[in-house]
Specification:
Elements (H helix, E strand, L loop, with lengths): L1 E5 L9 H16 L2 E7 L14 E6 L5 H9 L20 E4 L9 H7 L2 E6 L3 H8 L5 H18 L2 E4 L2 H10 L6 E3 L21 E5 L5 H13 L1 H7 L4 E6 L4 H10 L2 E4 L5 H5 L3 E4 L10 H7 L4 E4 L7 H5 L3 E4 L2 H12 L5 H12 L1 H14 L4
Parallel strand pairs: 1-2, 1-4, 2-3, 4-5, 5-6, 6-7, 8-9, 8-11, 9-10, 11-12, 12-13
Helix pairs in contact: 1-15, 4-5, 7-9
Length: about 375
């Protein structure tokens, strides 16, 4: 299979979307005899987490200024790519993979016409995501063009992938019930590292991690600190909370400091923070898609308590008793008490995580789906 993989976000960045895109790029590369990756590039930024061996790399620098980007968005130019005719040569590619429906805009029908198979990976139901994380200034044009390009991707892709079953249902409901859909899920973006987990008795260290600069994360955190942090302290009298992540705002930093919560801003390595933790909390209560930050906790053997909005995609781990959810204050307090009763060692939770999310499983799972649909 000769694959063209088109990336939307900067792969050297942070956040769940970047994690998923690295994973998908590596898994498709493992199944391709030849793969070209077209990706956005910033000066001095490396392809963090991507196994580039054997890949044809085509970096694209976006030279547009903010004003130009805004006017491009208004008229529906939602990504940076202009492809010459060589990209539409059937002898060059068997399949093109859009790692986000955004980059399929104005391109997918051209690949259809050229007879090249198309796959779109939907990281979420984009309309729902924008409602929770979109800029107020650009929200209306973003919603309009999202409805256009997301719908075109769903209807015109030979195969659509989502991360969760909920997104299958949403995309089919709003765009096409006949569209070919498969749940890809999420996996580690390479062969897993060996992690030596501590065997000490579980204590009272709670942690939240992830990019802190996004609107949905900051809004969720500020609300959680006001409404739920007192319940955490009341339910577990010895609870100590650490929040760690990139680019916290001044406002968030001030609130965290006032409440006596430990904030680790843009840590160079999250590993020591997670190794020192006992429980993982995820308060994000808006947006769409699978919240990949929950994997941070499970990877390090931490039981997870998450808002129900961020539960999707973790139902198997919930049934095994390692992920809990809440939707109100009473359920949150109950969830904290459930965390405190867990006797499983960290290594046991990590083993269950690996059984579901390790990279090698992702390669075999994707191979089976592509074979089923005649794409390899």
């Amino acid at each position: 299979m000769k694959t063209l993989f088109i990336v939307y976000t900067y792969l050297g960045g942070h956040g769940g979307g970047v994690y998923a895109e690295r994973t998908n790029a590596n898994i498709f590369a493992a199944l391709s005899e030849k793969m070209t990756i077209l990706y956005p590039y910033k000066e001095g930024e490396d392809l963090k987490g991507i196994n580039t061996e054997g890949l044809e790399l085509i970096p694209v620098i976006d030279k547009r200024g903010k004003i130009r980007k805004f006017f491009d968005l208004v008229v529906g130019k939602v990504h940076r790519y202009k492809l010459d005719e060589s990209f539409f040569d059937k002898n060059r590619f068997d399949v093109v993979v859009f790692d986000n429906s955004v980059v399929s805009s104005r391109l997918i029908k051209r690949f259809n016409k050229a007879g090249i198979k198309t796959i779109t990976i939907h990281l979420n139901y984009q309309i729902q995501y924008l409602m929770g994380d979109g800029s107020r200034l650009t929200l209306l044009p973003n919603l309009f063009w999202t409805w256009i390009y997301e719908g075109q991707a769903v209807r015109n892709s030979d195969l659509n992938f989502t991360l969760t079953q909920q997104d299958v249902e949403l995309l089919q409901k709003h765009y096409s019930k006949e569209a070919k859909m498969e749940v890809l899920g999420v996996f580690e973006y390479g062969p897993g590292e060996t992690i030596d987990l501590p065997t000490r008795p579980r204590g009272h260290q709670y942690v939240m991690t992830g990019g802190l600069g996004s609107k949905q994360t900051e809004d969720s955190l500020l609300k959680w600190i006001q409404e739920y942090y007192p319940i955490l302290k009341e339910t577990d009298k010895e609870a100590q909370l650490t929040i760690a992540g990139s680019n916290p705002s001044v406002r968030l930093s001030q609130v965290v400091q006032k409440e006596g919560i430990k904030l680790v801003a843009s840590p160079p390595d999250m590993k020591p923070i997670l190794l020192n933790a006992d429980y993982y909390l995820n308060p994000v209560d808006c947006g769409g898609g699978l919240k990949l930050r929950n994997l941070d906790g499970l990877k390090y053997g931490l039981p997870v308590l998450t808002h129900k909005v961020s539960l999707r995609g973790y139902e198997k781990m919930q049934k095994q008793g390692f992920v809990f959810s809440y939707e109100n204050k009473e359920e949150f307090a109950f969830g904290v008490r459930q965390l405190m009763t867990i006797k499983d060692e960290k290594k046991d939770i990590r083993q269950k995580y690996l059984e579901q999310y390790k990279f090698e499983n992702g390669v075999q799972y994707l191979k089976g789906i592509l074979t089923k649909h005649g794409l390899i």
